Amino acid sequence: MTDMKMVDPPMPDARLRVPERVLMRRVGEEQVLLNLADETYYGLNPVGSRLIELANGGATLGEIIDRLHAEFEVEHGQLTIDVRRIAAELIAAGLIELGTEE
Hints:
Layout: E1 16-17, E2 22-27, E3 30-35, E4 40-44, H1 46-56, H2 61-71, H3 76-92, E5 97-98
Antiparallel strand pairs: 1-5, 2-3, 3-4
Helix pairs in contact: 1-2, 2-3
């Protein structure tokens, strides 16, 4: 993935959403995604899968972090760093984008 553009990690108050160009299906504990714009397939582990499910529900990154902290045994500070990094990678891949307030 060397051609992936670098994106700054979003802040906790950023609202995330899955764009219409991304198809999602759950397979076991993973999410399988297809970005129709570039026809690239992605598989996400259980934590990444949960992140994108919550983003698809319109949650802010802070809400996603709080929910993941409640669901997985992990230190909150490290979780925040990891989730912000993963969100930046998903944004760069076109799998999620920053939403707008409605």
